[in-house]
Amino acid sequence: MRWYLLLFLLALPAKADSLIDQQLPDFYQQLKLETYPLSWQSGNFTDIATWRSNARQTLRQALLWPDEPVEFSPQLLKTEARDGYTAQLWSIQLTAQSRVSILVLKPDTTKPAPAVLLLHDHGARFDIGKEKWIKPFAGDSRLPSAQQWADKYFSGHFVGDALAKQGYLVIAADTFGWSERGPIEFSAQQALASNMFLLGRSLAGMAAYEDLRLVQFAKQLPDTDNSRLAVLGFSMGAYKAWQLAALTDDIKAAVAVSWMNDYQHLMQPGNNILRGQSAFYMLHPGIADKMDIPDIASLAAPKAMLFINGGKDTLMPLAGVEASYRKMQQVWQAYGAADKLSTTVYPELGHEFNAEQQQQVYKWLRTQLAENN
Description:
With about 375 residues, the chain is α/β, with parallel strands linked by helices. The chain has a single domain (about 75-370), classed as Rossmann fold. It has 12 helices and 9 strands. The chain has helices at about 1-10, 15-30, 50-60, 145-155, 160-165, 185-200, 205-220, 235-245, 265, 295-300, 320-335, 355-370, and strands at about 75-80, 85-95, 100-105, 115-120, 170-175, 225-235, 255, 305-310, 340-345. It has a 9-stranded mixed beta sheet with strand order 1-2-3-5-4-6-7-8-9, sandwiched between helices. GO terms for molecular function: hydrolase activity.
């Protein structure tokens, strides 16, 4: 019943903000008293493997996106030699509905390399997507925008290029709505989500399924060491990174920067998750009545996971970050793999992935993707 109330409140016009603020407090107080039946902590399961199997199946069903395998039919469109690696622009058939361009950075080596799939943020910036991670080709009109983004959030660095210099095969694609697949901005995002719901699909499910397909594409590349495949995401991309690790065992390690919390702390008046629009990239119908956010992320256990958050990130309340960390730690402990979960809060930082944090990630990836690990 709580979700019927929520949908009613979300349907109110913008001018009704004061009415929403008046009616929501009691509703959110109720949330604190309820449990999630598919949470490991619910007591409904005595075996961790059974819990994971059941909860993962529920998550996959919530995507509302059936498996529709198609041939990738890749076409190499462009290459550019860089310092110790080559940048490649490919066109692939990602799904039956979408043929997309992706960027691949291939290190100058003759043997298969560990691979890192990069998932970009939302950021209310739609002219760039994959270019937020990887430096565009020389002469590309998006280069100034990409550099501005790197300066704002990544200490001026293109993280994908830094990883390629370290010997990783790097892959990045646009989420539907960004760069060459956009722009699809706020009101249009909500309209798109509404159309998909009418068709029995979801925008969040489409985004998640496309990420699963990107993993499959990475695996079939002859330059990829399939036993050492990782995913790294920032902001919305961080949500998608831990979600992807929860959905497939093909991912060995995952890094999520600046997106982890719980519903109790996010479902508050004014929070982005309740505004519709871009939130629909991360809202799976019905799942929030069964599992909390850290419950979903915990489906990635017992694989190696690194979560990084800023203590001053206004989008991710610190109390929710810390509560989520504690909840996830219980799951990794139940697997006897507590050492595989790393959680970090930078008390003085906000919503960013700066040079210091990048160095932490690079060191962690070297350990987790070491050839004999």
